[in-house]
UniProtKB/TrEMBL annotation:
This is Sulfur reduction protein DsrE. Residues 1-20 form the signal peptide. It comes from Gelidibacter sediminis. SUPFAM superfamilies: DsrEFH-like (SSF75169). Keywords: Signal.
């Protein structure tokens, strides 16, 4: 399991540092990131990656958002599956975002979405809007 997490973190770090993000503007001089994921379990390597980037970049580390969408969106309403990640995300400076479109499509009770998570109407649109603002993006 440790090998899987380490490999995932290494892959994500390599991806972010190896691909030039041409044509994108950074308005605040900081490195901002957005990830789109379909599985709550992927939050573990994502948060580890955010922690590593924050340590590496220091003051240049900006906003880091993780958009959760897809058919497993209901997992965010299960405290046993999500609460640990919410705590880790807060400490790492990671904002967890729920896709409202997925919540509606898969009939997830929005009142059970943790209060510390943000909900957007459309996670894919939100991702594109952040990319237009210069955020580096990846989907898992």
């Amino acid at each position: 399991m440790k090998t899987y997490i380490f490999s995932s973190v290494l892959f994500i770090l390599t991806f972010f540092t190896a691909i030039p993000m041409t044509g994108q503007e950074s308005t605040d001089g900081k490195n901002n990131y957005v990830l789109l994921t379909k599985k709550v379990a992927q939050l573990q390597p994502i948060i580890l990656t955010a922690e590593a980037l924050k340590a590496e970049e220091g003051n240049a580390f900006g906003d880091f958002q993780v958009i959760i969408c897809g058919k497993e969106i209901g997992d965010i309403t299960d405290p046993e599956k999500i609460n640990h990640f919410i705590e880790k995300a807060e400490k790492a400076g990671v904002q967890l975002v729920a896709c409202g479109f997925s919540l509606n499509k898969f009939k997830v009770d929005k009142t059970k979405v943790p209060r510390k998570m943000t909900t957007v109407d459309n996670g894919i649109l939100h991702n594109f809007q952040l990319q237009k603002k210069g955020y580096k993006s990846i989907s898992l």
